[in-house]
Amino acid sequence: MTRRIKRLKDFEISLVLMNDEFIRPPRDSQRNWILNRSIAEFTDDLMHMDAVSRRFVRGSDSIPLQDRAQAILEDYEIMEDWQMPIMKAMASAVTESHGDILEIGFGRGISANFLQESGIKSHTIIECNDSIIDRYHDWKKNYPAEDIKIIRGKWQDVIHDLGDYDGIFFHTYPLDTDDYLEQIADSVTFAEHFFAAAADHLRNGGCFTYQSNEIDSLSRGHQRLLFKHFTKFSLSLMHPLNIPDNIKDAWWADSTVIVKAVR
Ligand SMILES: C[S@@+](CC[C@H](N)C(=O)[O-])C[C@H]1O[C@@H](n2cnc3c(N)ncnc32)[C@H](O)[C@@H]1O
Description:
Distance between the termini: 43 Å
CATH class of the largest domain: Alpha Beta
Number of helices: 9
Mean pLDDT: 95
Bound molecules: S-adenosylmethionine
Structural class: alpha/beta
Largest sheet: 7 strands, mixed
Number of domains: 2
CATH superfamily of the largest domain: Vaccinia Virus protein VP39
Number of strands: 9
Strand order of the largest sheet: 5-4-3-6-7-9-8
Radius of gyration: 21 Å
């Protein structure tokens, strides 16, 4: 059995390894280095979480998640206004090639406007909600000459029939409680369930962007997931976000990280 204890003013970390073969590189000094580094990282993470937790807003009581696939939603239920700068930054990250762009989730059309303003060759949108598709048809009138099309359905059901793109913009939300549990509660980032599909539909050198659900940096677990599907990635820290105190969304911090991953 191996024990490590680290005591600080505000907390104590105790690590007990029950199995002497767990983490067993050739030399004991290497094992010590790994264990010490792991505890140091955890300590550092807790200290940062202490600091960022003081920048949280209270937020509203969470609304039970109903089936949203075909719900008729108010603007703020689709996406709150404070997210607009994030949409702009993601659109700018994904359109550097000015090529063929796939957008998952039309919503209020805010990101679609930013994508169009960047000057792109073509714009394909996947959207499952019929009332949002009605919004799309009104929005499309603003861009009569542009190569824009919408594919109706959940991306999980329709993406296989599509080709490859230079950029993929991903911004959906869980559609029901099962989605919520699988895609948010059990995952380091909501976008994880889309990583494989994104990599499958990107041209070499093409890029994929999403909001990370992380506050001030990217966790190691998150980075390892990215490296399973992409060759490199870059991060942008959005801070400060103008978060209203009565925010309805499941986000309370005044910063977030957006990711641009390259295939
Ligand atoms: C947060 S909104 C997108 C907001 C948009 N980026 C904007 O700037 O207005 C999410 C959208 O994704 C759609 N959506 C959610 N899950 C989906 C899925 N599995 N397949 C296709 N669309 C989905 C929703 O209907 C909604 O229109």
